[in-house]
Amino acid sequence: MAYNMQGYNAYRDTGIKTASQGKLVVMLYEAAVKNLDDAIEKVGKDGKVEARNIEAYNSYIQKTQQILNELQISLDMDKGGELAKNLMSIYMYYNQQLLQATIKHDKSILVFIRKQMADLLEAWKSAASSTANGPAYNSQMKTSINITG
């Protein structure tokens, strides 16, 4: 049974455009965790990525890096204070580690970052559910990346 992909894409895009800033951050984290799961899946039990899976493996890591870059850009370093500085450091560290994982095909790095991002995702879900979040169109965060797989 075929479904209208164009309709689904419009529905998803509307959800993104009308989401609060907090919900957008949650969506970015969810996409990052999913991409890390997909990259981890491409690493075999022997710790190697088969030649036929290298392109997909690298793509999942690159998407995660793009998400991390988007999260970095969205930080308000003036208003965010120490939290923004700490998140910036974390995002930079994750990007550096993802580069190593790309080169070495090191599954343990991916698993570590995935766990950390899943923990941060839960914190952001809690924060996004607060009533302090306004609509995204009033915020400074404008996502320019495709967060879907």
Question: How would you describe the overall organization of this protein?
Answer:
There is one protein chain. This protein is mainly α and 149 residues long. It has helices spanning 5-18, 21-41, 54-74, 77-104, 107-128. The protein is elongated, with a radius of gyration of 16 Å. The two termini are 22 Å apart.
Give a quick summary of the entry.
The chain is mostly helical and 149 residues long. The chain is built from five helices and no strands.
Structural class, from helix and strand content?
mainly alpha
- Quick one: overall form? elongated
The H-and-E topology, N to C, reads as: HHHHH
Distance between the termini: 22 Å
- SS summary, helix count: 5
Oligomer: single chain
The number of E-state strands comes to 0
Q: Share of helix among residues?
A: over 70%
Roughly what fraction of the amino acids lie in strands? under 5%
Mean pLDDT: 83
- Major pleated sheet: none
Unreliable runs, pLDDT <50, ≥5 residues? 8-18, 136-142
- The Rg value, from CA coordinates, equals 16 Å
Key terms:
mainly alpha, 149 residues, 5 helices, elongated
List the helices and strands and how they pair.
Blueprint: H1 5-18, H2 21-41, H3 54-74, H4 77-104, H5 107-128
Helix pairs in contact: 2-3, 2-5, 3-4, 4-5
